[in-house]
Amino acid sequence: MSALIDVRRLSKAYTLGADRVQALRGIDLAVDPGEHLAIMGTSGSGKSTLLHILGCLDTPTGGEYHLDGRNISDLDDRALSRIRSRSVGFVFQTFNLIPEYSVMENVSLPLLYQGIAEAEAKERAGRSISTVGLDHRAQHRPKELSGGEMQRAAIARALVADPLIILADEPTGNLDAATGREILALFGELHRKGATILTVTHDPDVAAACRRILRLEDGRLS
To answer: I need a labelling partner for 76 at 20 to 30 A (CA). Which of 43, 63, 178, 203 fits?
Structure first.
């Protein structure tokens, strides 16, 4: 089986004034289709930088990143945006829902950006919303939802384009313990249905819900 994500000697450096900060140092990583993987690390370990590169939000300084067999390390912003919209689903700690839009509208939006007709976008969004058990809230706005419901809406939005991989950034960080366990159970259910999920976290309980755990420290993966 070919790796869905194949990262080789990946590095990332930032220039801050007169200083050069090395955020990632020679990362090697392979993620197979259907994996449920956690990358643990403290603040400043390079987790966010790695997630941004894997999610096509940023490019590496050195090394290569292959996604589904394609080397995307040197693509321009336009090409990365196309890949990101079709191949990657994001779930963030802060949900990132548009307050003025209903759940249905939030979940439909990625498809509308791809030029998909509104009727088809809503049909697909409805299926995604049903998958996360939020049918009864489809016409509600984020302010009318609980934290757990907002995260379910965010997961539905991540799923709607049928991405190759779901990238989750501290997905339970803004939730109470019981609601966090519900979200982790939902990720487990999605994984059992075949989803590939990579979660970055500092929380050992979140990592323990995944099938494989790697640790990032000072830009190095172990």
So the answer is: 43
Task: Mention every residue, 6+ apart, whose C-beta is less than 8 A from residue 37.
Answer: 31, 197, 198, 199, 210, 211, 212, 213, 214
Each residue's pLDDT tens digit, 137-196: 999 999 999 999 999 999 999 999 999 999 999 999 999 999 999 999 999 999 999 999
Q: Which two tokens stand for residue 208?
A: 């323990």
**Domain around 190:** 5-221
- String of b and e for 192-204 (b: at least 16 CB within 10 Å)? eeebbbbbbbebe
CATH classification of the domain holding 31: 3.40.50.300
Kindly give, in sequence order, each residue whose CB lies less than 8 Å from that of residue 109, ignoring residues fewer than 6 positions away.
98, 101, 157
Cα 148-152-157 angle, rounded to 5 deg? 145
Q: Cβ(10)–Cβ(27) under 8 Å? A: yes
Number of domains within the chain: 1
CA atoms within 13 A on the CB side of 84: 18
| Whole-prediction pTM | 0.93
Phi then psi for 123, rounded to 5 degrees? -65, -45
Tokens (6 digits) for 166: 């779901």
Tell me the per-residue pLDDT of 51-106, one tens digit each, with 9 for 90 and over. Answer: 999 999 999 999 999 999 999 988 888 999 999 999 999 999 999 999 999 999 99
SS3 106: helix
